[in-house]
Specification:
15% helix, mainly beta, PH-domain like, 51% strand, single chain, 116 residues
Length: 116
């Protein structure tokens, strides 16, 4: 049983490593990519894995699955109100984001990644 779980987790990790962010979802095609990594969007009772990409003007989250309402979450850095470092599963690896937008009212979420 343990061998199967290890093999499945290795396959999932290999799949995540090969997937990159789809740049056709960028708001501006001339945005320069600063940083890209894999991470998770954590909301109450749900942890959704995906790719996190940072540009000079926006933060993008593209989930690996199609559970989210939008295929890519786009957050303008100019609308970012608060960014805090928090704990998740007893590790300091969570960035708590609070964004106020005229279009989306407000967005608050946790992004889990090892780079925070």
């Amino acid at each position: 049983m343990c061998v199967c779980v290890c093999q499945i987790s290795d396959l999932v990790a290999a799949r995540k490593a090969t997937v990159s962010f789809n740049t056709s979802w960028l708001e501006n095609l001339y945005e320069e990519q600063i940083f890209q990594t894999s991470g998770e969007r954590v909301t109450p009772l749900v942890s959704n894995p995906g790719r996190i990409m940072l540009t000079a003007s926006r933060l993008y989250f593209q989930p690996y699955n199609n559970v989210e309402v939008e295929p890519v979450l786009k957050l303008a850095l100019s609308e970012l109100q608060l960014l805090l470092k928090r704990r998740y599963l007893l590790r300091h690896v969570v960035g708590y984001l609070w964004v106020w937008s005229m279009l989306q009212a407000h967005v608050h979420m946790y992004l889990v990644s090892m780079w925070l």
